[in-house]
Automatic annotation (TrEMBL):
Pfam families found in the cross-reference section: CBS (PF00571)
SMART domains for this protein: CBS
Domain CBS: 11-68, 78-135
Organism the protein comes from: Pseudomonas aestuarii
Protein name: CBS domain-containing protein
Tree of life domain: Bacteria
Keyword set, alphabetical order: CBS domain
Length: 141
């Protein structure tokens, strides 16, 4: 049953993260280096305080170019309105949240601390593995 599959089982645990005082161009370089579209921003205790996306970086560069002051720190451009999920949430609920919104990934938070991230592709992998497992049961019966 898909309800028994939890976010914890499929989330990505090792994430690129930033601190609020990370230089914007350092953050851009890390996003490009890791070929990712965004990353969580955490405080010194690992609490999630924001998200920085490629769009946020572009906005920072363009506004800086306009005011002739390109650069700055991540906290000036990160998004602080963050939708999060618990590691105990089931895959069906996550799927429904992805379908309702335009999010491609959701930070996973436990006890206020960032513990991972779940993406649409993680959910697809879970459903695929579940379906293949069930097909194997049907064939052997």
């Amino acid at each position: 049953m898909l309800k028994s599959i939890k976010v914890r089982d499929y989330m990505t645990r090792h994430l690129v993260t930033f601190r609020s005082d990370t230089d914007l161009f350092t953050a851009i370089n890390r996003l490009l280096e890791h070929r990712i579209a965004g990353a969580p921003v955490v405080d010194s205790q690992g609490h999630l305080i924001g998200l920085l996306s490629e769009g946020d970086c572009l906005r920072g560069i363009l506004s800086g170019a306009y005011y002739e002051a390109i650069g700055g720190v991540v906290s000036s451009y990160m998004n602080t309105e963050i939708e999060t999920i618990s590691p105990e949430t089931d895959i069906i609920e996550v799927s429904e949240r992805f379908l309702r919104g335009r999010l491609g990934r959701i930070p996973v938070v436990e006890g206020g601390r960032l513990v991972g991230q779940i993406s649409r592709s993680d959910v697809l992998r879970a459903v695929k593995e579940f379906a293949q497992h069930d097909q194997g049961k049907v064939r052997t019966q």
